[in-house]
Write a structure and sequence with these properties.
Radius of gyration: 19 Å
Number of helices: 9
Order of helices and strands: EHEHEHEEEEEEEHHHHHH
Distance between the termini: 26 Å
Strand order of the largest sheet: 2-3-6-5-4
Helix content: 40-55%
Shape: globular
């Protein structure tokens, strides 16, 4: 689906100029890319006249490449642009005008059998890219000011990648859990119109209807559809959810979500996690 937005309506004033410089580099190299993370989430919220509670001053971009030599060539091209520099400590990070951070995360043939990438030369820094290929089929096409065209991950795609990221680094940060709670709390409102269509309208048969529960069911349905051709990835998703369902009050996921989203209650999030998992067939 295609969406048109105005740069003046986006919470990220540097997004358009950053992409105006980066997109030609990606296109010349023949590299597929799409935007993930908070910027993708915030653009989707903006499409539905919603706002995020936290404005991010960075940009996460996923790129499909087969080897590190392709990344090195791309990095050289990016830093040759007048407004870009390379972060000296983190290999995936670039800086636009010294303060706007851009993380470029490679996936595809470059990953190992555990769906992780290990950054050279010593491979001491690893990142999970599980789900990056699976979200491609549900990418949203965005056009800014009828000039800049690019794709972003869908809201359910944001949830999927955030959950896998949470599993990978929940001992280091609660940011992913905070974002997951925000998505759960707002998902139904973003999908209110589609909730009247099949098969999503079954949420109105709930005995104890809440927007949180209804959103969880619709999210589960869309994740199930997204992962229909990827049983191993769906199994890993279910494993995370079922592990936390089984741990009940000891669930790290649920506890981190409610600790970072004080308006949410444990029992409500536990039920939402159960409902999502129940839709994954």
């Amino acid at each position: 689906m295609d969406y048109k937005v105005k740069s003046t309506d986006i919470q990220h004033p540097l997004l358009k100029p950053v992409l105006e410089e980066l997109i030609p580099v990606f296109e010349e190299a023949g590299i597929k890319f799409y935007i993930i993370g908070a910027v993708a989430r915030d653009i989707i919220l903006e499409l539905y006249d919603e706002k995020s509670k936290r404005v991010t001053m960075d940009l996460d971009i996923a790129i499909a490449i087969n080897d590190w030599s392709a990344f090195d060539v791309l990095a050289t091209q990016i830093v040759s642009l007048p407004n870009f520099t390379k972060d000296t400590k983190q290999q995936q990070k670039f800086l636009y005008k010294s303060n706007f951070e851009i993380d470029i995360v490679p996936y595809g043939g470059i990953k190992n059998q555990n769906d992780k990438i290990y950054w050279p030369p010593d491979e001491s820094f690893a990142m999970t890219v599980l789900g990056f290929e699976e979200v491609e089929d549900s990418l949203l096409k965005i056009q800014i000011d009828e000039e800049v065209n690019f794709e972003i991950v869908s809201l359910e795609g944001v949830f999927l990648l955030k959950l896998f990221a949470w599993k990978d680094r929940s001992n280091k940060t609660t940011k992913d859990a905070e974002d997951l709670g925000f998505l759960l709390n707002n998902y139904f409102n973003i999908n209110r119109d589609s909730s009247f269509d099949e098969p999503y309208n079954k949420v109105y048969d709930l005995e104890d209807f809440t927007e949180l529960n209804a959103g969880a069911i619709i999210l589960g349905q869309k994740l199930n559809l997204m992962l229909a051709k990827s049983p191993p990835v769906k199994a890993k998703l279910k494993s995370i959810l079922e592990e936390n369902i089984a741990k009940a009050e000891e669930s790290k996921l649920i506890n981190q979500i409610i600790e970072t989203n004080t308006i949410l209650k444990f029992d409500d999030i536990a039920e939402a996690i159960y409902l999502i998992n129940n839709e994954l067939k």
